[in-house]
């Protein structure tokens, strides 16, 4: 009975965040995410509208931009470093079902997105993945294993397509009005 009550309470909090995600008042969304969903959000970080947050442990560093319609699954853990950019429609999962399980059991591992990474639009990152420092994940990419540092990857599943300059000097700080 207590477990059921907890599941309902979490669902209500997640649903509240989803509804609040449509309201173009950034500080209000950040307040809700920090205080009701217990997301740790660093300074100068922005979460644009319509972000779906799954309850759990989510830590977001400083100078992070999360684009519209992102899905952040913290059920097993999601750790985002500093100066990271997520374009629109990025989905990150830390938990999924085991297709070989006779009872469809859930399995998962934390996801780590390290400093200065850029995750482009419509990308899906699966449980247990680490996107290492400075990596770029191209649009429409499926990330099912670790991404080496300062590489550019793309495809389904991804392949390394290039390397990235290690001399990164920018600091992200962008907030679009009404997003």
Q: Characteristics of this structure?
A:
UDP N-Acetylglucosamine Acyltransferase, domain 1, globular, 19 strands, 179 residues, 2 helices, alpha/beta, seven-stranded mixed beta sheet, single chain, transmembrane helix, transmembrane
CATH overall fold name: UDP N-Acetylglucosamine Acyltransferase, domain 1
> Do you know the CATH architecture?
3 Solenoid
What portion of residues belong to β-strands?
Answer: 25-35%
Helix content: 10-25%
Q: Biggest sheet: strands, sense, closure?
A: 7 strands, mixed
The radius of gyration is 16 Å
N- to C-terminal distance: 39 Å
Keywords: Membrane, Transferase, Transmembrane, Transmembrane helix
Transmembrane segments: 12-32
Pfam families: Hexapep (PF00132)
Family: Belongs to the transferase hexapeptide repeat family.
Structure description:
This protein is of the alpha/beta class and 179 residues long. The chain has a single domain (2-163), classed as Hexapeptide repeat proteins (UDP N-Acetylglucosamine Acyltransferase, domain 1, 3 Solenoid). It contains two helices and 19 strands. It has helices spanning 2-20, 26-35; strands spanning 40-41, 46-47, 52-54, 58-60, 65-66, 71-73, 78-80, 85-86, 91-92, 95-97, 106-108, 111-113, 118-119, 124-125, 130-131, 136-137, 142-143, 151-155, 158-163. Strands 2-5-8-13-16-18-19 form a seven-stranded mixed sheet. The longest helix is centred in the first third of the chain and has 19 residues, at 2-20. The protein starts with a helix and ends in a 16-residue tail after the last strand. Belongs to the transferase hexapeptide repeat family. GO terms for molecular function: O-acyltransferase activity. Keywords: Membrane, Transferase, Transmembrane, Transmembrane helix.
